[in-house]
Amino acid sequence: xxxxxxxxxxxxxxxxxxxxxxxxxxxxxxxxxxxxxxxxxxxxxxxxxxxxxxxxxxxxxxxxxxxxxxxxxxxxxxxxxxxxxxxxxxxxxxxxxxxxxxxxxxxxxxxxxxxxxxxxxxxxxxxxxxxxxxxxxxxxxxxxxxxxxxxxxxxxxxxxxxxxxxxxxxxxxxxxxxxxxxxxxxxxxxxxxxxxxxxxxxxxxxxxxxxxxxxxxxxxxxxxxxxxxxxxxxxxxxxxxxxxxxxxxxxxxxxxxx
Length: 258
Ligand SMILES: Nc1ncnc2c1ncn2[C@@H]1O[C@H](COP(=O)(O)OP(=O)(O)OP(=O)(O)O)[C@@H](O)[C@H]1O
Description:
By secondary structure, this protein is α/β, with parallel strands linked by helices. It has nine helices and ten strands. Helix 2 crosses helix 3 (113-126). The chain is globular, with a radius of gyration of 18 Å. The protein binds adenosine-5'-triphosphate (ATP).
């Protein structure tokens, strides 16, 4: 049994250097309880995508340890879903075939075909795009591709869900609608989610904690608790006093650390 100290996502002395010798991510140490949404903001180049890639197992090498409930992520025993910045959809497969393939890889065909098809329809519907099932990714708008990528990530029912600026290609209204869809979908499958965004408001509207990456690789990230807002109805957050207080708090940290 894992002790409480080891439960959740544990990042121990993580440091990433790419082949060029450039330090992409300074030493990081933190533990995040499971079943939470953690938003990550930081200046360009501070290592947000690199952090997600390390957790997703996409880096050939890194220093330190990544554990989930005490088990190393290197062992691939924990199912991780990633929505990368470029959506990562296969252009030669239809929307539904993209999702089907991800489900097959994740569950190694242990699921019945009927259950798989039901899952595909359910997640496309949850993202508001059931009519796009037969279309090919390159015939879709950027925002539609983002929805497909999010549906695909949720459809594999991951334990850890990583999202790299998933709503960046959306207009403000669609973005708000998708934030709500994301929260509803997360409630249906409360993965441990790391959500990278450039938008401070979005970080406050979605995260249970907000992780602020520093510009200096020698500095540590700052964690801002956001439980009060996280517990509110999504539609009421933006107009609340707590939202404005949180904006002020975070801007202060940004001024100091960026
Ligand atoms: N494949 C790579 N090879 C070499 N260096 C890389 C590679 N990918 C990223 N880097 C470098 O690592 C650092 C962190 O990059 P990363 O993409 O993680 O930052 P980020 O915070 O996600 O930036 P952005 O907000 O612009 O997406 C940067 O200095 C970047 O130039």
